[in-house]
């Protein structure tokens, strides 16, 4: 008897429809539509100035596009209009991000930076502190437990008490990843997590990204210039050029797409990697 294997389409967790973002006369994004599917690693690639960071900024609420729709579906399937939410609300929904230029407090320890990563989940304030001290204590312990779990996961136990500014660049990038992970995200937005790293650091980072995706069940949207990394890590790729989506598909499909090759022509370093 013939076996019927049903191939279930993964759920869509984030959908952008016809996004348009401009700064005065500069169009950063034009008619950008894409979806992020549950459990995938989606890479956003494109030449410099293509609009990659602007897109992540729209998703995390830092930029407000003038056109289009941006919707997040939570684990229960509820729809959330991200264009109506502030960055902290978006983070609380389960969308965390790391930044291209590390955005950590350099004089604070690794542990404190990671605790700050959880602040959007913290309920306590000056009133509840006084009235419900025990509740505050319980909450604090739980946050600390989750942060310690991230520290173990990223293998940074030995630097947990060190000020971030004293760490090597590659480790700072790992702490930046930890800060985003401490938020317990459903979707992690990573803006060039391997930029400026040596080969060994890149390999470590690639392993952590895969483990976060597979073991911690986190959907990942990744901006990356290193095409080798993109080809190895991602399930699907969206290619932006001059603020427009010019291709979407598997790494192999986009690599052979004539529009993508055209967009990268002129940049020999990028072409070599394609
Ligand atoms: N805050 C801003 N004010 C004015 N223009 C901006 C702003 N942010 C982005 N832009 C413009 O939008 C366009 C897209 O920039 P963006 O940084 O999103 O590209 P990118 O693909 O991330 O580039 P890179 O690979 O160099 O980081 C560029 O022309 C940029 O100058």
From TrEMBL:
Keywords: ATP-binding, Nucleotide-binding, Transport. SMART domains: AAA (SM00382). CDD domains: ABC_Mj1267_LivG_branched (cd03219). The gene is livG. It holds the Pfam family BCA_ABC_TP_C. GO terms for molecular function: ATP binding; ATP hydrolysis activity. It comes from Ardenticatena maritima. Residues 14-267 form the ABC transporter domain. This is ABC transporter. GO terms for cellular component: plasma membrane.
């Amino acid at each position: 008897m013939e076996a019927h294997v049903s191939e279930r389409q993964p759920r869509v967790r984030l959908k952008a429809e016809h996004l348009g973002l401009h700064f005065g006369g500069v169009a950063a994004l034009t008619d950008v539509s894409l979806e992020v599917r549950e459990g995938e690693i989606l890479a956003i690639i494109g030449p410099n100035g293509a609009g990659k960071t602007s897109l992540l900024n729209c998703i995390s609420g830092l930029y407000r596009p003038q056109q289009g729709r941006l919707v997040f579906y939570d684990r229960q399937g509820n729809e959330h209009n991200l264009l109506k939410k502030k960055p902290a609300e978006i983070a609380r929904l389960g969308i965390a991000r790391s930044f291209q230029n590390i955005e950590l407090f350099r004089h604070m320890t690794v542990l404190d930076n990671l605790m700050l990563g959880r602040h959007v989940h913290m309920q306590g304030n000056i009133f509840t502190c006084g009235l419900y001290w025990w509740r505050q204590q319980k909450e604090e312990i739980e946050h600390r437990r989750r942060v310690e779990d991230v520290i173990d996961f990223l293998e940074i136990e030995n630097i947990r008490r060190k000020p971030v500014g004293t760490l090597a660049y590659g480790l700072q990038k790992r702490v930046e990843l930890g800060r985003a992970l401490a938020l317990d995200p459903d979707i992690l937005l990573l803006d060039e997590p391997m930029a400026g790293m040596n080969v060994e650091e890149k390999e470590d980072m690639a392993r952590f990204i895969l483990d976060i995706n597979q073991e911690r069940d986190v959907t990942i949207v990744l901006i990356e210039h290193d095409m080798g990394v993109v080809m190895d890590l991602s399930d699907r790729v969206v290619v932006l050029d001059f603020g427009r989506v010019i291709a979407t598909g598997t790494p192999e499909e986009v690599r052979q797409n004539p529009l993508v090759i055209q967009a990268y022509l002129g940049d020999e370093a990028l072409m070599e990697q394609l």
